[in-house]
Amino acid sequence: MIVNSGALTQQPNACISVCGIPQKPDHHQKADLSGQLKEFFTHIFNTDSWPARWHCGIWSDFHGWLYILSDFAIWAAYFAIPFLLYRIISKRKDLPFPKMLWLFSAFIFLCGTSHFLDAVIFWWPAYRLSALVRFATAAVSISTVFALYKALPMIFNLRTVDQLEAEICERKKAEEETRHLQIHKKAAEDLMAKKDEFISIASHELKTPVTSVKACLQLLERAALKEQSLKDLSPFVTKAVRQIDKLSHIVNDLLDVSRIQSGQLELYKTSFNLMEMIKDCADQFRIMDSRHSIRIDGDPHLTVLADRSRLDQVICNLLTNAFKYSPGNKLVIISLKPSENDTVKIEITDHGIGIPEEKSKQIFDRFYRVEDTSQYFQGVGLGLYIASQIVKQHGGTIGVNSTPGKGSTFWFTI
């Protein structure tokens, strides 16, 4: 519709005719904000101020129905999407970002409502209701934008289908490897159990004949010292006694290992002077090996509550180790001093070949021997293991500080 330009000249105070009806001055336009809000919400469904859209402008049937049907089609799709999302959310409660999906549903639903009202306005010009729905759509849209932006880092970290498939393959491979490892572990455990059983039986069976042979050799040694005719045999008998002593020591170690593995290593604790016990042990070693000298440092009045026989065994094992691996340096130092938590710390220091750092963690394992030294020094790798188990059963700790080529300090607390 063409507006008459002459009307603008003749009626300067009148409103311009819009969409085919003259506008009248509205006192609500001059009201304050609170008045405008009240008027807006109390007349939310009032359509007196506007004509239907069919009567606003020049619409052909094709143009108008294209607009209307497009809006209705969009509305139908936008209403269907939230219901589909609702079904997805209700069926798949494990999906990530459920709040985001609800926001999308609300946003799409309100967009559809806007298109629905846009089509209805062709007959029912509810512009106030349309504005309110658009405002709600804007609010939900902005909230969705912020929620989506906040979730971006987590979304970017979501794995793709290919990544998930690769992970599943890796997991299956790991499970298969774990299964094979468990089978091998079980086989190794069974083998170890059989070995422990064999060691236990063999050590018990060997103890009696070894003891008998040792007794016979000792009698023969005494006879060789008395009888002139047997004097030539004395060095050989003495050597045989020493070898049987070594064998007896190995048998006793095997018996101790068997007791440790079965949890039958018993302790008989008494209170005794630690310095006296260490001196007795050192005197035995001075007699057996006059090539090494032993120096003892520390408080001579320290007393401990422990199994004296087993603690003597620990000291002897550590001294044996110190003597064996320091053939070129004769001094071995034993020091004892009070430690934290009312314990005593005993250190045995040699100046021998030392132990590489990467191998020091395994030095207390059963049957472990440092590969570089096993061909030069005798032993079965039980002394340090037994010593560590005795210390641990006393509630103490054991360790070693070593520098290759400079020596080692074995220590334990009791």
Topology:
Blueprint: H1 5-10, E1 17-18, E2 21-22, H2 33-42, H3 61-91, H4 98-120, H5 127-157, H6 161-226, H7 234-262, E3 270-273, H8 274-288, E4 293-298, E5 303-306, H9 308-324, E6 331-339, E7 343-349, H10 357-360, H11 371-374, H12 383-393, E8 398-403, E9 407-413
Helix pairs in contact: 3-4, 4-5, 6-7, 8-9, 9-12
Verbal overview:
Keywords: Kinase, Membrane, Phosphoprotein, Transferase, Transmembrane, Transmembrane helix, Two-component regulatory system. One of its GO terms (molecular function) is phosphorelay sensor kinase activity. The chain crosses the membrane at residues 64-89, 101-125, 131-149. With 414 residues, this protein is of the alpha+beta class. The chain has three domains: 43-122; 164-262, Helix Hairpins (Orthogonal Bundle); 270-413, Histidine kinase-like ATPase, C-terminal domain (Heat Shock Protein 90, 2-Layer Sandwich). It has helices spanning 5-10, 33-42, 61-91, 98-120, 127-157, 161-226, 234-262, 274-288, 308-324, 357-360, 371-374, 383-393, and strands at 17-18, 21-22, 270-273, 293-298, 303-306, 331-339, 343-349, 398-403, 407-413. The strands form three sheets. Strands 4-6-7-9-8 form a five-stranded mixed beta sheet. The protein has a two-stranded antiparallel sheet with strand order 1-2. A hairpin with a 2-residue loop joins β1 (17-18) and β2 (21-22). α3 (61-91) runs antiparallel to α4, α6 packs antiparallel against α7 (234-262) and α8 crosses α9 (308-324). The termini are far apart. The model is unreliable at 1-18 (pLDDT under 50).
